[in-house]
What we know:
The protein is of the alpha/beta class. It is 24% helix and 22% strand. It contains nine helices and 20 strands. It has helices at residues 100-103, 117-126, 143-155, 170-178, 192-199, 204-216, 235-248, 274-286, 300-303, and strands spanning 10-11, 15-17, 23-25, 33-34, 45-48, 51-54, 59-60, 63-67, 81-85, 113-114, 131-134, 159-164, 182-186, 220-227, 255-259, 292-295, 305-306, 313-318, 321-325, 356-358. The two termini are 37 Å apart.
Amino acid sequence: MNDERIDRVFPTRYWHALEDGRVQCDLCPRFCRIKEGQRGMCFVRACQGGEIVLTTYGRSSGFCIDPIEKKPLNHFLPGTPVLSFGTAGCNLTCKFCQNWDMSKSREMDTLADAAEPETIALAAESLGCRSVAYTYNDPVIFHEYAIDVAKACRERGIKSVAVTAGYICPEPRVEFFRWMDAANVDLKGFTDDFYHRLCSGHLQPVLETLEYLVRETKVWVELTTLLIPGENDSDAELRSMTQWVVEHLGPDVPMHFTAFHPDYKMLDYPSTPTSTLTRARAIALENGVRYAYTGNVHDKEGESTYCHACGQTLIGRDWYRLSDWNLTADGHCNRCGAPCAGVFEPAPGQWGDRRQPVRLRDFAA
């Protein structure tokens, strides 16, 4: 919360003034209390003129077209391209962050591209993207900007995807997810100790976000857990997590178990063995999760989607490339007729595993 000159600002709603002259940000459970000229922990929401403002509206750290499976989303418009972008900053302080150069950045120069909402929507439409992903850093901290982009996209028939830790308060959560069509939520671990020690956060607000999304919205939800050796990969924790998911969210919410590699402040930890991911996937399936995946490793079996009723391969995957496709036009197994949970089109997309950088200035008016 250091003093910092503010360049471009955008008004926000979720805050209130305190009796001691500070203001409290009410966007996320951190509830940062800051003085004039200071920024909150996320570093992008600041106090100016006695109000909380967003300092990164209309500025991005870069744009790229990815396969939707990279978010990762395996049950939302498979095979289609998604226009991905983020800003800077984050409201958690994960010591294992794999995008720390952007999410932990306090340099506004990281935000290289001017990117108005209408320009992003136009670019997505012109480039044939079925969706736009708010990713790299957590979109809840650029709440107002993400919502305006999502509104512009919806007018053009473009879906919106939030890649988020779900660390957000109830009132702004409702407004934010009203404009999202899908979300991949990082369930980083399943103990409050893990969240407190390694993320400077708490588990319960994330669980509340997940229950809200699944029970009270139409947002398609998938979960990702980065398994860190010795921290959140024990059989006991994996059993507790997957049992909670089935009991509170249902068996149809896909879970992705992905491999950690040494990064940021955890360079002294080993990479996650593939066997750990396979074990996590097996525990999830045993506990009733119908769609469990491995990630950040090459594992065709762990990447593919299977019918929960007859076991047929419904969607084969090799990294981000689709192979088998055994879904009917309405998303059922073409062998036994059991439904596959998700958002599917009659045929899969053909984007493959390409990654294509995009210059937004090419689409500006």
